[in-house]
Structure formats: C-alpha cells, structure tokens
Request: fold
Amino acid sequence: MKEQVPETMVNALNRALHNAMTDNQDIILLGEDIAAKGGVFGVSKGLLARFGADRVIDTPLAEGMLAGISVGLASQGIIPVVEFQFSGFMLAAMEQIACHAARLRSRTRGRLSCPVVFRAPYGGGSHGAEFHSESPEALFAHLPGLRVVIPSSPAKAYGLLLSSIADPDPVVFLEPKRVYRTVCEPLPQPNTHYPLDRCFILRSGGDATLVSWGASIQETLAADVTLRQQGIHCDVIDVASIKPLDMATITQSVRKTGRCLIIHEAVRTGGVGAEIAAQISALAFPYLKTPPIRRAGFDIALPYYRLEPYFMTQPEHIVQSVIQLMNDDVRTAPISGQSYPSAYPGKCK
Amino acid sequence: MDHADLFTETASFTIKHRSCLNPDGELLTKRDVQPDIQRWIDIYKGMLLTRMFEHKAVNLQRTGRLGIFATAFAQEAITVTLGHTMAKEDLLCPYYRDTGALLQRGVAMEELLLFWGGDERGSLFQSGHGDFPIATMVASQCLHAAGVAKAFQLRRHRGAVIASCGDGATSRGDFYEALNLAGVWRLPLVFVINNNQWAISVPLPQQTAARTLAQKALAAEVSCEQVDGNDCMAIHYAIREALDKARNNGGPTVIEALTYRAGEHSTADAPEYYRNEEQQRAARQALALDPVRRLSRYLRSQQKWNDLLENEWLMTCRATIEKAVTDYLHNPADKPESIFHYNYACWPEVLCAQMAELNDDERTSA
Ligand SMILES: Cc1ncc(C[n+]2csc(CCOP(=O)(O)OP(=O)(O)O)c2C)c(N)n1
Ligand SMILES: [Mg+2]
Reply:
C-alpha cells in the first residue's frame, strides 16, 4: 500500500470541504474573503475554481448576517458551511446562532430545520491582533440545539468536519488555529466520518486521566511523554465533541484511574472543564482518589501576544498538576481567599 | 466662503408616496381598479375576519386563556393585503403583528391561538405555504428572509420572499444587514415596514432622525416607496409590483406603509401611561383613517357591498372563529416528553437520560 503523506489541518479541512461539496450539490460555502482569496488561512483555497461562485460565496462583512441568512438558506434545504474569520467575531452572530439556528427545529416542532456548520479558527498562540485569540467553546456549549465540535489534529479535522456537515442540526466547529500548520498526519480514507459524540482515547495508562481538546492536546501529549519517563502512565482523552460530551468514555477512564486532570485553554470559570468535573464527581465519586482538578486559562482578558505565554498552559504545568494528583495534594489545597496576604494587590479597601 | 465650486452633486433622492383611496373611500387615481374588484372584496373580508379574530384573541387573553396577544387593530390593511397579494410559491417571514397575513396564507386560526397560548405546535402551519414561524425577536426575520431569497435565487425558484416588520425594527442591525445584502445580491426580497409610529412606548422621532423609513433603502441601492398603510389598494399595487419585479430578477424593494397604532402594543401594554394627551388624541384621530371603513365605503359606493352581505360575512366569521376557539380550548397540551423531541434530529444520549429524569418526576408527583 502506498505510504500516506502527512497533511496539515488546513489541508485536511480543505479536503473535507472538497469531498463533501463533490458529493452533495446542496452544500455551499459562505464567508468573508473565502472565495478568490480562499479564506484568511487558505482553508477554502481552490474551491471557488472547482465549484463556482454560486457555491463558494464571498459575502459582505457582517457576521450576524452570515448566521441569519444561513437559517433562511438551511430552511430551504441548502446546507451552508459558514466561515467566521476568527471566533472572536462570532459574538455578533450569537443572537442568530442561539435564538434562530439552534432553535429553528424546536420552535417549529421539526417543520423546519437548520443543518449549518459554523466554522471558526479559535485560540491563542498565533501572535494575532486583539480579539483573535479567545476560546469561546463554553459560550456555545451552553446553547441547546447546537453541537460543538473541536478537532485536535488533521485527521480529526477531516473526519469530524465531514460528520458536522452531514449532521441535520447546526454545528459550531472550532478549529485550533495554533495547530493549523504545525501538526501533520496522514488523513483517514476518503469520506471517513468520525462520530460526533465520542471522545478519542489517545494514550492509555492506569494512573490518571488527562482530559483535553483542541490545541491543548499538544501540551497534554508532551506532558504525557515526560510523565511516562517518570513512571506515571495516563489515559489521554481528546474530548473532540464538546457538546454533547461523551461522559461514558471519560467516566470509564476515571473509574479506572481514580484521578482526573482537565486541561483547557479557555478561561476557567464556567468553562467546559467545570461541566466535566461536575459530572465526574457524580458519576465516579466512589472511585475517586482525589478530586478532579482543572488546568485552565486564568479568568482574565486574554493578554496581547507579548505576555500571552503567561496565560497559556505549558507541558510543565500539566506534569506538575498530575504529580499533585498522584500525591493526593489536591485534598489539602487551601480554600481560595484564606491564604492570601491581607494586602494583596487587588484587594478592595 | 463655502467653496461651492469644489463640489458636484453625486446623488440626490426623492421618496414617492402612493395612495389610491382617500379616507372617505373615494378614488384618488384614474387607474382602472375595477378589474381587481374581487380582490378588494376579498381583502375587505379578510380585514373583517382579522379584526374579529383578534378581538376574540384579546378576550381570551383577558380571561386567562392566552398568554399574550398583539393585534393589528386599525392597521389591518397592511398585513391582510400583504398576505392576500402573495402567491403560493412566495414565502413570508412574518412578525407578531401578522395574524392577518398568516390567515390569508392559509394558516389555521387554531394554530395561531396555540402559538399565543404557549404551544409550539402553533408554528406547524400545516395548511400554510411553508412560511417562517412568527418572529418574536425584532428584525431577526429580515435576515431569514434574505437567506430564503438567496436559496430561491440559487435554485432558480420563481418565487419571492416578504419580510414584514415594524418601524422600530428598522433600527436594528439585522434589518440593515439584510437590506445591504439584498442590494448587493439583488435578492428576490420585499421588505414591508408596518410603520405604526410606535415601538411599544418609543415614538418614531426617537427611533430615527430619517424623514422616511423608505429612504433607508437608498443607501443600499434598493428601490423603495412609501404607501398609505390604511389604503388597501395602494398597498396591494405596491406589493404586487414589488413581488413581480423580484420574481423577474429585478431585485428587492422596501415598502414603508404608514399607519398608526391606535391601541396598545400588546395585551401587556397600557399606552395611557406613556402617551401624552396630544399623542392619545392622535391615536383617537387615527381611527378616522381606519382601513376597514375606508374600503367599506368604496365597495358600497360601487354597489359591491351592503348590510346584508356584511351581516352574512360577519356570521360566517363568527362561526369560523368560534369553531377555532373551541378546538383550541379542547386541545390538550402535548405530552411533557415532547419538550425533548425537537431539539435535535439525532438525540444526544444525555437528553435520553434527562427525559428519564422528567419521567421520574412525573411518576413521583403523580
Ligand atoms: C431584539 C428585540 N428587542 C426587543 C424586543 C422587545 N420588543 C418587542 S416588540 C418591540 C417594539 C417593536 O416595535 P416595532 O418594530 O415598531 O413593531 P410594532 O410592535 O410597532 O408593530 C420591542 C422593543 C424584542 N422582541 N426583540
Ligand atoms: Mg411600530
């Protein structure tokens, strides 16, 4: 068999769009600068030439409009795959996504539906301008009627984008742009669809469960290498489907290991890690040796890129947290607030 | 010095206002309106039916059998004529004041009562033409309409789309974004603005400094006009021409229909608290422009309508409404489980578990 060439995530996404559009004439692409330019990251490069201007459509610059017209288009049987240039700009589209795309099926009792994919590059680490680095998955995960999917690698980007396009309901598909071109791997067989509600177990081990998604999978895997050298073997789970969560797989692993660390780039409070930790506490309580903990972004505005590295979780942080878990240190951690000096900088008078 | 020689005129505008019937029901035009006589009769009957039905709906709300209701009282001409003028292959993205249009579009009264009575089954529109559900979120429907219009264009479907909205809606981004897009893509889309001068308690001068709402179309290079919104003939011709144009790849149109909200915004509103005396007087005076009376006068002057016909029709309306109300009141709420059924086509597992929770609750409380 011919050796498969490793591909970038950008190419994988391009390939998935290409395949899906070849197979289904109802699929169209909408976005800003996606046609002649092929998108700011080149995800739709070549698709205008291949599928024509009726199917690869540059729109005026208005994100709420992008989401809103998708609802109308989808109601008529067209399947729009919408590109937002950066996830930070999806907020203007929030109303149309939350109130209309996500609810068209329920408010019409299934008479109309909204099979749309809202794609956007997200996350930090790429020296972007302001509002180009946030991780908004929790905002979308809170919305009934939506699916939220985050691929961590080229192969997953391919298989998950195909499934997202095929899904009969709206999917928010967030792409970790930090690994758009830095991670390469062979793609699965053409037209391989990955399930939209299953985690991927990337590494197996009995000592602890590491749960992550998106670009953070890279730091998690790096930490896992270090930990293995120290004799600590972890299950590494790539969540991939942020909504719905595959709690069965995660719970099974935690019941085995009794220890769980959740790693995400998004800010901590109200993050998807909180949901996972809450569910683990309920589903695996008797098996837990320590409380599940999170390594997530600080609850701060994302710094501009010079100081951004201080915001990002590094493999060492993950190693440190796992060692803490292994030593049962978590149980004795102080309750926040009690341990600060009375004159710490932010204290209100 | 204003250096006038530095400037040349690159654009200027005028807005046309169309009217056919004066408030006394007298024709203002030499246009031969006779070929459409059956239309005027049908629209008139549609307005009577709508007025009576909405009156009933308010009573149902007052007696606790509907959650809330918004009537188009004294502004029925716009919504009824709009629904009447559309063809089967057209699609309507209505808002909450479009009861009249939806009835014309074949939507069952019982469904409309279900909608306002807190039951999603009211948006099934089983006997309608695939129209969008009623927009509660102001102006959101403008973008849905633009999307449908784009779908029609891509599919080469010979239909046009109408987005119906209020004056307040024209302040929102969704309206402007849809308008701009319609201009760029020459969408088969007609915006009908029900300008009743009020957005709940906010009068139009506080909504916009624009002298007309129609002119908002000009910035998007979209055709526009203002019509007398209490004049069914003017509204009909305006919409008919706009729809024909849209269906023949002539692009979008904005029609601003001028009327006045004589009554409350909805059953949850009491204008006497925020309209001053002068404004309340204006509201009462607006009744002199009543579209129903106006068309009645015209039809009677043409010997096309009389008390006998009126009474017959009112009886028919009453019977239709009574039956719908009875059906509505006897229609039990759907099964509690149904709240889970339409969130996803393929249920995430977690919803199965949560539905089991609901069923447990049911069993415990039973
Ligand atoms: C986006 C949004 N904001 C606010 C509201 C609350 N609201 C409902 S109707 C209304 C006034 C709308 O006025 P207008 O567009 O003139 O329509 P009218 O009711 O006068 O026909 C408001 C503020 C809403 N439904 N949606
Ligand atoms: Mg109004």
